[in-house]
Amino acid sequence: MRALVVMSLAALLMLPVGAAAQGSLNVYCSVQAEWCQGIATEFQRQTGIKVAISQKGSGETLAQVTAEAANPRGDVWFGGTGDPHLQAAEQNLTLPYKSPNLDKLHDWARRQAEQSGYKTVGIYAGALGFGYNPELLQKRKLAPPACWKDLPKAEYKDEIQIANPNSSGTAYVAIATIVQLFGEDEAFRYLKQLHKNVNQYPRSGTGPIKAVARGETSISISFLHDGVTEAVAGFPVKTQAPCEGTGYEIGSLSIIKGARSLDNAKKFVDWALTAPAQKIGADNKQFQVPSNLEAKLPPQAPKFAEIKLINYDFAKYGSKAERKRLLERWEKEVNSQPK
After folding, report:
1. What confidence tens digit (pLDDT) does each residue in 257-315 have?
2. Residues 268, 118: Cα–Cα separation, whole Å
3. Got the DSSP string for 14-57?
4. CA-to-CA distance for 32 and 77, rounded, in angstroms?
5. Which homologous superfamily is 127-247+319-335 in?
6. Rounded Cα distance, 243 and 97, in Å
7. Cβ(126)–Cβ(58) under 8 Å?
8. What are the residues facing 204 on neighbouring strands?
9. CATH topology for 5-126+249-302?
10. What is the mean pLDDT of the chain?
11. Which residues, in sequence order, are CB contacts of 244 under 8 Å at separation 6+?
12. How confident is the model at residue 22 (pLDDT cuts 50, 70, 90)?
């Protein structure tokens, strides 16, 4: 596990008067590192609660929370795709909590809370799609992909990256999306064809889009907002929403059952659902759609109204049994196959 990132002395010196020595909070964070550090810095500045951050993908965090169930080390799980949060709720790994700020959220965020028995809540949403490097594609005389059905084409041999769905919530959302679009058997035939064009399955969901940005691969299957982050940073990255339609995530927030700092965990959840707290994502060049109704959508953020979204079945694909079954089938029928 990556070492816990503890707030610096400089941040402690910036604490407002009266905000010192208010205890601690261990946050498992499944968004990009800059955002993780941003929320830690600001929450500690406002409350005096000492925050430690452990950053990793949602699939890995679910595995960690499961392994630590008898002796929890984390208090709060911030961000990452909603499916693993729903699975944690199903497995009784997280605690129900009805924040007083629930009524300030979009319907989709509240539905996530209701569906889980209030063991998780939506903090942002993001649509799945493709990222691509136009410079690499031009050099290889390849057209950018516009549809899911484009990706298995022979001309994209070794040009594509998608994360490993065993560790990445992003990649699991991709599999669940393709299953819902095409039907399961056709989806796995598709994934076997796609496998021939995949040059790597990184552990992290943001790994493929960062590889696109660095010119290490031409195309990624990623959340569109992660592509915007790389483009805003000056990298040659463009994004495309698939023509057939696409799935989306509801990035979620959960209190871990057995949290040693339960009161501070509840304070963090209340704070994280406010509009100013949700602005920290955009301040750190993260372009998801925030769940608070008063939080402003960054102008660079993908517009959901312009994307063909499927009716993603969060209840089914967020269940432990379905996730386990699909991942085992992917491992057996796709990942184990030669290219």
Report:
1. 999 999 999 999 999 999 999 999 999 999 999 999 999 988 899 999 999 999 999 99
2. 15
3. TPPTT-SS--EEEEEE-S-HHHHHHHHHHHHHHH--EEEEEE--
4. 13
5. Periplasmic binding protein-like II (3.40.190.10)
6. 39
7. no
8. none
9. D-Maltodextrin-Binding Protein; domain 2 (3.40.190)
10. 93
11. 147, 148, 149, 181, 308
12. confident
Residue pair 265/76 in contact (Cβ under 8 Å)? The answer is yes
Using CA atoms, how far apart are residues 4 and 234, in angstroms rounded to an integer? 30
pLDDT in tens, 197-249: 999 999 999 999 999 999 999 999 999 999 999 999 999 999 999 999 999 99
Per-residue confidence (pLDDT) for residue 182, from 0 to 100: 98
Q: Comparing 5-126+249-302 with 127-247+319-335, is the CATH topology the same?
A: yes
- Contacts by 205-211 with C-beta closer than 8 Å and gap 24+? 205/57, 205/58, 205/81, 205/163, 205/168, 205/169, 205/170, 205/171, 206/32, 206/170, 207/161, 207/163, 207/168, 208/131, 208/161, 208/162, 208/163, 209/131, 209/237, 211/161
Of the candidates 99, 67, 95, 62, which has an alpha carbon nearest to the alpha carbon of residue 80? 62
pLDDT over 70 (residue 15): no
What residue ranges do the domains of the chain occupy? Answer: 5-126+249-302, 127-247+319-335
**Distance of alpha carbon 124 from alpha carbon 111, whole angstroms:** 13
